[in-house]
């Protein structure tokens, strides 16, 4: 399974998603994370050697890729339309994280026009969803479904652990905080949907 994580908008949780899905998939079969972002956020996250899976750059990917069952590709924000076509063509599933914020949803809906036209296999993931009493996650989901988009049932809550985990070089499953576990369960649910 080759999964690519992309978005037009920056800061919507692409790298967080790529790292956590790679950690989930690694529990099932050997998984490689390809860091396709020049900022190298995923590579920096991996620097302490505490992640359970291997992280390489795109330049290294051709050599490593054949040794792995699953590959997760993290990308940089704001791809050109041509880049997006190539990204969609280069994977089995394109994951498009978005927060429930109106501006992020707006950017996503523009991305999706292009993808639908291409007949790409993509699925939207709601990330950084604020806790109740905010209803923004629920409202965003309704809007996306009404627009006819495929949306993961699983979604990712807004949790401080997601901000802190990279500083410790771990995934939230290994982050010492009780609430972090519910963040991991979110990515577990999404991982199950991917492999279903
Ligand atoms: N579920 C979450 N809860 C709280 N904070 C989160 C969550 N997911 C991501 N973040 C934080 O939001 C910020 C952006 O996340 P991330 O780096 O994963 O996004 P990105 O889309 O890869 O950004 P970029 O476009 O810059 O590559 C980071 O500070 C990250 O720690
Ligand atoms: Mg990133």
Walk me through this protein's architecture.
By secondary structure, this protein is of the alpha/beta class. It has one domain: 3-Layer(aba) Sandwich (Rossmann fold), CATH 3.40.50. Helix content is 43%, strand content 16%. It has 8 helices and 6 strands; from the N terminus they run E-H-E-H-E-H-E-H-E-H-E-H-H-H. It has a 6-stranded parallel sheet, sandwiched between helices. Helix 5 (102-118) links the parallel strand 5 and strand 6. Helix 1 crosses helix 8 (180-195) and helix 4 (81-89) packs across helix 5. The longest helix is centred in the middle third of the chain and has 17 residues, at 102-118. It is globular. The model has no long low-confidence stretch (mean pLDDT 95). Bound molecules: adenosine-5'-triphosphate and magnesium ion. Magnesium ion binds at residues 14-15, 37, 41. Adenosine-5'-triphosphate (ATP) is lined by residues 7, 10-16, 37, 41, 76-77, 127-128, 156-159, 162-163.
